[in-house]
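Illustration 12: NitT/TauT family transport system substrate-binding protein.
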Amino acid sequence: MKKTVLSTLAALSTVAVLSGCSASAAGETSDSEGLTKIMIAEPVHGVGYLPLYAAMKNGYFEDAGLDVEITTLTGGAHVNAVLSGDAWGFIGGPESGAIANAKGAELVTIAGVVNKANIYWTAATDVEIDPDDLAGSLKGKSIAIGRHGGSPEIISLYLMQQFGIDPADMVITNNDQSGSEIALVEAGKADIAVTTEPVLGQGITEGIWTEPIVNVPAELGDFAYSSIVIDSKTTKEDPDTVKAFTAALGKGMDFVLTDKEGTAKLAATEFPTMTADVLQPTLDRAYADELWDGIDISDEGIQLDLDVSRAAGLLVDDGKVTVESLLDRSFMP
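Figure caption equivalent — predicted structure in token form:
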């Protein structure tokens, strides 16, 4: 298997930052208005995270006594920010917490945001794909698969196994910068891209790639894809803040599920460079694929995430990490 690593912000080794796990009340301070200020690190600014953005923009966090800020950290740095104490929590795959825990961290998942595997495989418009012979069609092709150890790569390696695709038969490029896959395909450096919204819709609208050749949300079903993960110590030292956060996040989720028009307006402010002809199909696809269904996470969704990560070879823990150790439902509203 040939692998190319394109790194603009190289992910630090989880082991290298475990010394930061001893930080207390990570990313948490008080502001001048008496609100508890916390930082959430995100790996990308994505459409799937709209329930979190809704809780911020609609004032649900503030009503709960919280001043929540979001910082975008690519290349795996969102996980490291929590481990080092620079962020209160991160939004991302629970498997990232599991991988850190296998190396000595103590992270827990407290709420879900995207409960379907929100990624898609798409092909350059000049690449012929036979849906009845996906393995044959992809043999010898190059694929931009996301950062090494990230959810898109982990899930894609698992799906290759399920589809009978030998990774050695493809040229795999790890592109650390989310969204860079569109430039790789456009430049002819990748035939296939593993991508997510809003980049998927942008590439389709611009004629760079096709509609998805693999709809991963449909393939995997219930899957803990993007969740809120924090240091377990925070749940013990400041449970009130954790409970306030999840309650406000739940209101943001309810807004996205019940007010599609309001969600579209919110998305337009969060993604100002997206034109309406890209944004609306993006939201339509998200609702059709049922990316959001509340902030609770099923045991099955977490277990599948762990199974996929182990099968892909990126979670090596001898069964140490379990649903019970990774998921804390006690703060659900």
